[in-house]
Amino acid sequence: MAITTQRRKERIDRGINVRTEGIYALMSIKELSYLAAPRLVLIVGLLILPLLLPDMYWKRVITITCIYAFLALSFDFLAHFVGLVSLGGAFFVGIGGYLAAIANTYWGFPPWLTIPFAALVGGAVCTLLLFPCLPLRGVYFAIVSLMYPLFSARVIEALDIFGGTDGIMGIDGFSNHFVEEYAPLGLLLIALFAIRRLVTTDFGLVLRGVKDNDQAIRASGMNVTFYKSVAVYIASTMGCLSGAILVHIYMWSGISLFALDFSILPIAATVIGGSGTLIGPVLGCFILVPISELLRDFGTLRIVFYALILVGFIIFRSEGLMVWGQRKYHQFERWTQI
Amino acid sequence: MDILIYGTINSVALALYALGFAMVYGVSRLPNFAHGALYVLSGFITWTMLNSLGLPYIVSIVLTLIITGIIGAMIYQFVLIRVRGMEISEIIASYAIGLAILEGLRWGGFRGVNYTLPAFIAGSTNIAGISVDYQRLLVVAIGAAVVAVLWLFTHYTRIGLALRGMAQDERAAMMLGIDSDLMAVVAMGFGSMLAALAAILLLPLGNVVVEAGYNVLILAIAVCIVGGLGSWMGAVLAAFLIGFAQILTVVYLGAQYQMVVAIFAIILTLILKPSGIFGQQKELEERV
User: Fold this and answer.
1) Does A271 touch chain B (CB under 8 A)?
2) Are B207 and B219 in contact (CB under 8 A)?
3) What confidence tens digit (pLDDT) does each residue in A281-302 have?
4) I need a labelling partner for A279 at 20 to 30 A (CA). Which of A68, A141, A204, B237 fits?
5) Best residue in A147, A258, A317 for a mutation probing chain B (most B CBs within 10 Å)
6) Measured distance CA(B252)–CA(B250) in Å, rounded
7) Closest by CA position to B187, among listed B9, B53, B20, B12
8) What is the pTM of this model?
9) N- to C-terminal Cα separation, chain B
10) Do A136 and B288 touch (CB under 8 A)?
11) β strands within A65-169, DSSP E
């Protein structure tokens, strides 16, 4: 009988990862740079990106990408750290956008005031509206959150409030292009690292407990709904922030803020980038949104395109690019005989 | 009186939307977010066969039922089976498929008012002084027949009993030699056929539009949640509850509040009795 030599891939952690996962005792400049390099590449890369792009059109695309990245971040945070799958990212965008538009046109707030206002108050509004659904898990929450944006668009249409189908026009734009490019980028980086920090704190641990075993959280005397609502507040604040920025960029707010694009693209970006990594969804947006800009001529075929990419990734590469990248970065791989 | 008649018709329509969804969820615990898309897709398949291929109406209806059933089964066999049990992925994958179908149809130019299916029997009649067209009466009759056939099917045939066994306890069903994957494919196929049946019955009442896909999905889910997910008879009862509530709002408040009723019913149900009217205790723990 022929002996077939079987081989398997062996993965060995690199030195610094072996010693500890979270707390690093840095021994040399080399180790320091090993840790800092990926973060610096991301931060510096994002910051110089607008400078590298020559024309206004692609600079605008970067800003739009940041808006989607906020949504992807909030989706990833809710889905993989709290266990609430929200199919209604557009709801956050819509609420944030309309609040900013109302604050700007009806009450005359300047943009630097409307954006924080829309983010903070919008987060509260979204949390309040989603509050009755918070005891739900998994499928049930996904279903209800899917309905919110469709429902709100229909309410605005039916009651003919806030400009009805025409939307609110005449919203102030940003004062100069530099602010328009860097405000979303800077806020995105802050949000990204803040959420990364948040999920490793004790509070983040409780949130993950809510996801994995909420009975245990309840048994520990903690209020599950309270933790969920705080998490939804954080996520919807990010969503509303992006909506408010979007409204000031387009200088218009309308029912299309509740469009499906804002719900589906962040999800696709999360799946492609790597769910549960927080940074992956952001990178996923930086891949998907420019591609979808290139495909702008195809109209709604773009949504078909995201949807198919999404299905392909879920089936064949469910780990996502970021998880794959982290593995390649932190581990050696070699073939060993069994 | 017109409230009674139109309420009944509306309720049967809702039940038809929801039965397919309830069936798939009941058997394989898969929330089929592509349900609305299959509904619209089958409408367009029928339209294409009728107008582009020139087939007789009855032939295109039968073919549509079969094709939609096969499409549904294939979606399950090739895509959803691989993510089975992973809740987040199940939702996202089926929703993405539904979106791909709906937006693909929209891109393919299927929009506007010129996509209509003819009624089975034209004309209308008077019931207690209110004119009702035959198609609506037919919807009620066939809807009732579908519920009856489904009941007989799940109580007296081998496949039907196997499906019910899966729905009640998957592990026990597997121990008795029921192939759970195969049954899930079958359930998805039947679920899609029910969606197609609903489409063929109900679309002659209006235009075939892509947006209907989202509405049908929402209404189906609303009915299933109120009735208790996975409970088929609960779904039928809930359809009557929501159907009459909708008609009453249309009469007393205005048509634009019709969808509000659906979401309001969901939220109210989830707060008061999360497992739905006919949900079992087991489901309550999964949900809350």
Assistant:
1) yes
2) no
3) 998 898 888 888 888 777 777 7
4) A141
5) A147
6) 6
7) B20
8) 0.81
9) 40
10) yes
11) 168-169
